[in-house]
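Entry 14. Ran structure prediction on the chain below.
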Amino acid sequence: MAVDWVITPHDRVLDGLEAGLRERSGAALLGPAGVGKTSLARSAVDWIGPDFQRVEWVTGTESDAAVPFAAVAHLIEVPAAGKTADVLRAARDSLGSGLLLVVDDAQFLDPLSAALVYQLTVSGAAKLIVTAAGDAPDEVSALWRDGLLSRIEVQPAGHDDVRLAEQVSQFIAELPADAVRTLRYLAVYDPVPLSDLVELTGVDAVEQARECGAIRVDDAMVSCAHPLFRDAVRAAVGGPALRRLRTALVERLMATPARGVVDRLRLAVLAVDSDRALPPDEMALASAEALRLGDLELSERLGRAALAAGAGFDGKLTLAYALAWQGRGREADAVLAEIDPATLTETELMSWALPRAANQFWMLSEPERATAFLRATRNRVTTPRAQTTLDA
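Output, structure tokens:
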């Protein structure tokens, strides 16, 4: 059974899109899932795209919403060093100007990808066509709330969420078993590298799913042809089965060569809710990378997983920073208190003592305790440099 999509007539919306691109920094197509917003964006690119030096697409996905820079990782390089502001600045510069950027399913953008999109818009480096369904987070809705984009409501007559959900469920139920198997992995994480999905399901299964219109293959990545397909499969599979699928996917991804920062964070996020734990040092490194990129909640989540897997000093230190910078000084102090200073090298001792004292001073408002702690720590160090640092 084919899904009978009720979509908005293109002419009226395309006129609004063109006006938004001419009079503002672009336009946002807002409406429920399944009304043709992505199709409208493609038509707009075919019509208006030749006026720009280049056109790039960014697609938000629910599984990537927790991973810093995940939505834009194919456009920019996220270095292994550098703070968030430096990464954003370098990314903005690398993309240049004269860009038409299409942001599809913007409600699923991670905050840092959303921040980059906003900066590109404000600076005039890019014009935007945005699609979004449901309530978009503040980082995304600011694009039209601040008047940068024209807001175009997409709600065609005859669209019915309940009817559409029933048709999608029927479409999934009538798919061949192998095609459904590929969708089950995408219900866990979307998109998935083509080579990994082939290893998990077989080349025939992937091709069958593509021919049925259930998946889309672009640039060696496989994604659901429509988010509603993914949601329907996830609802049908249930929690325990999703965990088994997630575990199989983690094991497959761990067998592939190491990738960049974003892919390492994706793997760590996927592993947290699986039965296949990453090595403690790898999870601790992922926690540190999330901290460096300013995602304190993700750093905490990965840091706790690292400690549960047996991470040592570095993992505890990163978790303490993530907690302290969220204003949770008591919890940070408790994590730092678990570290035995007698087991530390002098370099490690300094790395531990300074944030603990700072936390006591400012987060806990206990200056007397912090001063006494620094005096006690000074007795443990031997180098003049360490002593001078503690005195300061």
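Strands lie at 26-30, 54-59, 99-104, 126-132, 150-153, 192-193, 215-218, 221-224. Will compare against last week's run tomorrow.
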